[in-house]
Structure formats: C-alpha cells, structure tokens
Design a protein that fits this description.
Structural class: mainly beta
Distance between the termini: 37 Å
Order of helices and strands: EEEEEEEEEEEEE
Helix content: under 10%
Strand content: over 45%
Number of strands: 13
Largest sheet: 7 strands, mixed
Radius of gyration: 14 Å
Number of helices: 0
C-alpha cells in the first residue's frame, strides 16, 4: 500500500498548482483522502479532506475559497487545485488515506489521527 503526492514546485504569489494523489495496492475511491502540509518548524496540519462515503469536504480557513479538493474516479486520483497561492502556503504537502470517515459537528474530519496511510510529500514553494 503506497500513496504518492506529486505536482509540487516553485510558483510566484498569486499563481496556481494542482497536486495529485495516487495509490498503488489499493483503490483511493474506497478511502477518505486528506491533504496535509507541514512548513518548517510547524506542525503538520490538515488543509482539505474528502470523505469516501458522501464525498463531503473540509477546508481549513487558511485555504477556503482558494483550494479545491476533488476525486477523479476514472483515474483513481485525488486532486488539490491550489489557486491564489501565498508565500505562507509554502510547505511540504502530503496526501493520506483513511479507512473510516470521521465527522466532527457534521463535517468530515481532517485530523491527522484519522488517516492510516501516508505518502511521501511534495514541496510547494511560493516565492517571487
């Protein structure tokens, strides 16, 4: 069981990137998928997650309105479209898969604890 995040890179402020999460050994469609990021000296944080059951989504306040998570079932890929990028978005981005969908106050959980499988991260650097 392996996950792979890809699509990172160097982008100017205001630019866009699309991250992809793919898997080998299992089907992403059957799992809740989360995107997390970790900046130097900071804890890993959940920024966007999508459930496996009802496809409900969560966005952290810091990315709401700028990032969009989506599933491409035909290609068994989960994307994170990132627009209007800011220098503070600079981090290593990880995707993770969870076997069980957890909800908090009716919203799909995007907490690290709820995700069982993790891939290698992809670096996103937002700088002019």
């Amino acid at each position: 069981v392996q996950l792979q995040a890809s699509g990172g890179g160097l982008v100017q402020p205001g630019g866009s990137l699309r991250l992809s999460c793919t898997a080998s050994g299992f089907t992403l469609d059957l799992y809740g998928i989360g995107w997390f990021r970790q900046a130097p000296g900071k804890e890993r944080e959940g920024i966007s997650c999508i459930s496996s059951s009802d496809r409900s989504t969560y966005y952290a306040d810091s990315v709401k309105g700028r990032f969009t998570i989506s599933r491409d079932n035909a290609n068994d890929t989960v994307y994170l479209q990132m627009n209007s990028l800011k220098p503070e978005d600079t981090a290593v981005y990880y995707c993770a898969a969870g076997e069980i969908d957890y909800y908090t106050d009716g919203e799909v959980s995007c907490h690290i604890v709820g995700y069982d499988y993790w891939g290698q991260g992809t670096q996103v650097t937002v700088s002019s």
